[in-house]
Amino acid sequence: MQFKRILLKLSGESLMGDQGYGIDSNRLSDYAQQIKEAAQLGVQVAIVIGGGNIFRGLSGASKGFDRVKGDQMGMLATVINSLALSSALTAVGVKNRVLTAIRMEPIGEYYSSDKAIQCLEAGEVVILSGGTGNPFFTTDTGSSLRGIEVKADVMLKGTRVDGIYTADPEKDPTAEKFDTITFDEIYNRNLKVMDLTATTMCKENNLPIYVFNMDVYGNLGKVLRGEKIGTLVTR
Question: What is the per-residue pLDDT across 191-218, written as a single tens digit (0 to 9) for each?
């Protein structure tokens, strides 16, 4: 087994499936089954999920929302997605716990790294919601921070593309995929993998990132079994 403990970053947009908004129950079920398989492999799984299928603070700010309020709305969107994922995991028999970056008992327990690690070591899937709890930070940065705090071996960034390319493969058919790339190359090529704060945190704390397509059923298990289906980012 490559990894003992992972931080799985899931895209809120991917939860929409083909709906264009909200939560697609089939996509949610697919995610839950793949996470169950990961847990059955003996991997400790911490999860951060975005909120872009419900509300994005940045896009709200561009439409006249106060940025702080918009980001707080985005944090709450991640909590809604986390509760949905928790419910789906419970339905397939996976013990899990939702921890929130801001106090909102009884919806979730207040996050601390010690509590998260204890739950992981007890075999629970831990869903870390509410971003960092602060405005002006993305859920990518939240993932980097939580991955470092819970001492994950890797951040698995599940997206809708199968890795990192020289350009956006959805717009440029000549884009070439990297099997491995360094953090410095990402900066120098100005590749939009995550926001700069998130990538810098991962680089400085030596948390590798593996980018893969989570929307293809079974891909999470393939990554955990060592199949090279995405792009590894290291120092």
Answer: 989 999 999 999 999 999 999 999 999 9
5-234: CATH topology: Carbamate kinase (3.40.1160)
Q: Are 123 and 39 in contact (CB under 8 A)?
A: yes
For residue 82, give the amino acid letter.
Answer: S
- The Cβ of residue 63 has, within 10 Å, a number of other Cβ atoms equal to 7
Q: Which token pair is 75? A: 């944090």
CA distances from 166 to 56, 69, 96, 123, 188 (A): 26, 35, 37, 38, 12
Q: Vertex 219, ends 31 and 156: CA angle to 5°? A: 80
Q: What is the spatial distance between Cα 202 and Cα 144, in angstroms, rounded to a whole number?
A: 6
Q: What sign does the CA torsion over 118, 121, 122, 125 have?
A: positive
Domain spans, the chain: 5-234
Q: What is the pTM of this model?
A: 0.95
